[in-house]
Amino acid sequence: MTDEKDNSDSDWEHIQIMSEETPPTQKDDTVQNEVDESDNNPGEKEEGEPPQKENAEVEESEQPPTDPANADEDSKPQEDSPKAEEDTSSQESPIKEEETPHESFVKVEGGDPSHDDSDNEEESEPPEDDLVKAKQLANPPENHPVPGKSCIIATRTEPPRFYVLKNGQPEFLAEPLLSGGHIWNCEVEDGWLTFPNETSGTFLGHNEEGKVEATQKEPTQQERFTARRKEDGGYMLFVLQGTELLGVVISEDGKSLVLQKGEGDALDFIDSKYLDSPVSLKYPNMPPQKLR
C-alpha cells in the first residue's frame, strides 16, 4: 500500500509540473482569435452565434504554432516596416545610376548633358594655322595685258624670268634691275596692242630677222601685237607678217623673244599694282614674293 501511495503521489506531482510547464501559447492564440473574429465579423455575433463555436472552428483551422527558430529557417517573413522600404530603395538606387552611364560621361566631358557639340565643331571655323596655309596655297590672279595699265612681262617657269630692257636691248633676266627697265605700259593703237617701256619710252617691235627689240619711239606696223589666251594659262603674243600671224616665242638660249610660225609661248603680264616694292610682288591673300 505504501508503494502504491508513493506512486500516485509522484504521478500527481508530475502532472502538476507538466501543467505548469505547458506554454499558454494555444490559449492566448485562442483568445486573440476570438477578439479578431469579433472585430472582423460583428454581424455574426449579433445573430446570436455562440463564441465557443467560433473558437472551436478557429482551433480546428489553425495549425499549432511553430517554433520561431524553425520558422526563420524555412521562410523569412515579409517586412512592411519603413526600414524594409528604405532597404529596398537603397538597393534599387545603384541600378538607376547604372542605367545612364552615358549621361554621366557627357557631363564630365562636355559639361552640358543635353547639348552635343560634335556638329558645332564640324561647322566651326578652321584654326588660324589652316587659314594661313590656305592663303599660301592661293593662286595669283590671271595676268593678262590690259590696255591703260603697266605690267611686268615674265615667263611662266619656276622661278620666273623677267623681260627687262638692259642697255637698250630687251632680254630675260633672273631678277629685275634696281634702275628699272622691267615695267612696260600697255596701250592700244588702231586696235592693236603696243608696249612702250616706262623707262626709255621705246616700243617693243621686231626687226627683219624676226627678233623682238625696242628701238622705235613711235609705233609702226612692226610694233603692233595681238594677244590670245592659252588653254593651260598665260597669254601668247602675235604679230602680223604679210598676211599671216607669227607667234612670239622664247629663243633657244632663253634670253630673248623671236618670231616663228604657229603659236607663241605663254607669258605672264603681271599688273604693276601688285608691286609691293621695286623688287617684290604682293598678291591678295598671299605672302610677298621677292623678285631679287
Main sheet: strand order: 9-10-11-12
Report the span from N to C terminus. Answer: 154 Å
Radius of gyration: 58 Å
Report on the biggest sheet. Answer: 4 strands, antiparallel
Order of helices and strands: HHHHHHHHHEEEEEEEEEEEEEEEE
- CATH class designation of the domain at 150-290: Mainly Beta
Mean pLDDT: 72
> What ranges have pLDDT less than 50 throughout 5 or more consecutive residues?
40-51, 68-77, 93-114
Percent of residues in helices: 25-40%
Number of helices: 9
Structural class: alpha+beta
Number of strands: 16
Shape: rod-shaped
User: How much β-strand is present in the residues?
Assistant: 15-25%
Instruction: Name the assembly state.
Output: single chain
What is the CATH architecture descriptor of the domain at 150-290?
A: Trefoil
How would you describe what is shown here?
- By secondary structure, the chain is of the alpha+beta class.
- Helix content is 35%, strand content 23%.
- Among the domains are: 1-40 and 50-61, no CATH class; 150-290, Trefoil (Acidic Fibroblast Growth Factor, subunit A), CATH 2.80.10.50.
- The protein has helices at 2-21, 25-40, 42-46, 51-61, 68-74, 82-98, 101-110, 118-123, 128-136; strands at 150-155, 162-166, 169-173, 184-185, 187-189, 192-194, 203-206, 212-216, 226-229, 235-241, 244-250, 257-261, 267-271, 275-277, 280-281, 289-290.
- The strands form 6 sheets. A 4-stranded antiparallel beta sheet has the order 9-10-11-12, with no helix packed on it. Strands 4-1-13 form a 3-stranded antiparallel beta sheet, with no helix packed on it. Strands 14-15-16 form a 3-stranded antiparallel beta sheet, with no helix packed on it.
- A hairpin with a 2-residue loop joins strand 5 and strand 6.
- Helix 2 crosses helix 4.
- The longest helix is centred in the first third of the chain and has 20 residues, at 2-21.
- The model is unreliable at 40-51, 68-77 and 93-114 (pLDDT under 50).
- Residues 1-150 are annotated as: Disordered.
